[in-house]
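[Q] Does anyone have a clean structure-token version of this?
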Amino acid sequence: MLEVSDVFKNYEGKPLLDSISFKVGEGEAICLLGVSGSGKSTLLRIIAGLESPDFGFISFNGHDLASTPPHLRDFGLVFQDYALFPHLNVYDNVAFGLKMRRMDQGDIAQRVANSLGMVNLKGFEERNVIDLSGGEQQRVALARALAPRPRLLMFDEPLGALDRALREELLNELRAILHRTKIPAIYVTHDQEEAFAIGDRVLLLHDCRIIREGTPEDVWANPGSAWVAGFLGLGNVIEGRVGAMRTSRGDERMKVETGFGSFAVRCVHKHSRGERVRLLARPLEDQKEANLLRGMVKDVVFQQDRFRVTLDNGLYVILAEAPKTGRRISVKVKVECLA
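[A] Here you go.
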């Protein structure tokens, strides 16, 4: 098991990582999700041993890795730019790390064959890597990382240079490989679809800290903060003030006055009358709800099987049928308190 404990890192005199702690269990895939510059890649480099933390430590199965150089940590790395050796063919790229370990040639050949088979590149051994497509090159990079049978796999925006269709294809294959090999993995990305598709747990980095972690289902259902809700695009984040309040059996119901109207909200947080709060109004229509989003239709965009409808007040809803531009509408939506 990998353990990251209380890691701090400054960059150009400013904090980049502040008290970062988490664990990766056996066979678990976690995703570090955040905007560019949030410290995700730096954290990955610290775990790999390519950079040192200003404070804190990294351990694997209880062993502190501070004095262990990168090549002895037995971790596999896959980068966005592939980092392949252009002068070597596919076989030699995949075999490179094995040759550095002075393995028997027969074992190397077997490992290379197995790794290329896992990434659907059987028969590509003699191909020049510079003649391959971007997707094929990324498969070679993955095969090279898998060949030494690492204790941990790390991915730094591995699919960022690929088009959407190819990205989805490789993401599905990568998830299947991780499940089959049960190698623990850390996957760094700014793309929430990738993170939610491949991660058993998602860790969101913001303002130097992990501000939310949990299963994809839990994070989606309970974002916990306005930033997480906005970053994931869960709906409309609305500010308001607490008005009338009523508590029954530990369940607090309150009326929140906002610039978009009054909303009745059930909340588990403790609030006082007049306190400023932030609400999340999820855009999907919910006929069971009493809360309404109202406005005049300003724009309608088709998205797969539904329509994103932007209102003149800046809010938006998702509807099964497209209303006409200029029409005033009222839509029942779920509204929840973020904090």
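[Q] Thanks! Anything notable?
[A] Residues 235-337 form a domain with the OB fold (Dihydrolipoamide Acetyltransferase, E2P) fold (CATH 2.40.50).
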